[in-house]
What we know:
Radius of gyration: 29 Å
Shape: elongated
Strand order of the largest sheet: 3-2-1-4-5
Helix content: 55-70%
Number of helices: 25
Oligomer: single chain
Strand content: 5-15%
Structural class: alpha/beta
Amino acid sequence: HVDVQxxxxxxxxxxxxxxxxxxxxxxxxxxxxxxxxxxQQAYVDVQxxxxxxxxxxxxxxxxxxxxxxxxxDNSSSLRAEDPIDVRSFLQKVHDLLTDHxxxxxxxxKLFAEWRRTSDHELCGERAMAELAPLDLLPILAEEAAxxxxxxxxxxxxxxxxxxxxxxxxxxxxxxxxTHLGKAAYNDLPESERGLVDLFIHxxxxxxxxxNSIKGGNTRLMAFWEKSSLQAPCLLMNRDNDAAASCxxxxxxxxxxxxxxxxxxxxxxxxxALFRHKDDKKGQQDAVRYFFEAxxxxxxxxxxxxxxxxxxxxxxxxxxxxxxxxxxxxxxxxGLHDLSTLTELCVLALYTQSISHPYMREARGPQNGLxxxxxxxxxxARLKAHMACIVADPEILLAPDASYEGGSLDGxxxxxxxxxxxxxxxxxxxxxxxxxxxxxVAGALDTxxxxxxxxxxxxxxxxxxxxxxxxxxxxxTNDENEGSSGTLRILARITLNVxxxxxxxxxx
Length: 507
């Protein structure tokens, strides 16, 4: 093996207002002839971090991983005579896979600087051990003079106590090592310096797709007002609804401004009503029994729209009051609103033509172990396909529209019945073509930002085949995010267990 590469995964989430840091490690053994790799995976842990600051995540998260690993390894009797240097771990790290939170870019810079400094120190220590004393004297004199000057001059140096003097001498020694390390680095051939400097930061593919939907939805929400069209109905919570109905004009305006509307909000409410995560809330049991008795197979909000109308009527009529509660009324209202249904159709078309095909290709046949660095052509093809839909939404809406031209990968629709339903509803939704075009245009703009790492001329595009294998990283952060998700489920089940105990559990 020419190299054993460590790929740290780093994802941050919040659980009950507590910042969590989940860590996962993948080790790739890379061969030269032929160029190939073998991947081993390791779960590290989930930790609490004191605050949402990059340096805290380096110190508490990324820094502690090799430190803990080295401490455990050196505790073994096998390492008694040959302890491992923790800094050697960093020489094996060629990339960092994180989520897309903005501060991760700063985290990458901090980690890259830590890696570079450690490499210079190791090279400098080896160079100093090999230098003859006479060859070391000029550098020692230079750095000692700089140390004295930094202390405030010869008089200030003479007044240092033993503790301060020891600290200053250690700083001089470190400066000498760094000096020698940088010199050794500069003497390397350019090809070897390229391998030493190889460090890539990338974001998981799944949040790219999720954020594209956010970008498309933002553009779609603005589309209604920009086009002076009837926007989706407001889906107010109980308090805002009361303020809008009985309050002053100011209270009504504030309630409307703070309330949400559209397909995304309706989907959120429908999820809470029909499939609540708490099995003691919502109508999930009744929904399951109703649809199993009616259809006998799984159900989808848009495809089985008429059945959801029937189910909500059944829920209402079985009550003594004969009325909906507030959430049920919001869902009922949203499912009968043409503008909201238009947005639901847009989301359905996007998931069938872009989301599912993209996730299939990004994960690849290895289910997420596809090399992230090889996905540049996929993202270029993705954006080209979306641009075609923006220019001509009939690619998806025409009566003869097919998966061959509409789906990103040209394969069968994930759920063909979704396309059938949208085509059946299309005659009643006059603004659907424009809404599709606007949504996809907003998503396309977002894809441009979240796939910038693959831009022509950037680091990934310039990598050779060997460097792509050497800096291999998975296309998704699924294993790592799965750890933090497992913790959330554990916390929900074991309510009386302290958060620190939950984090320390081997999930």
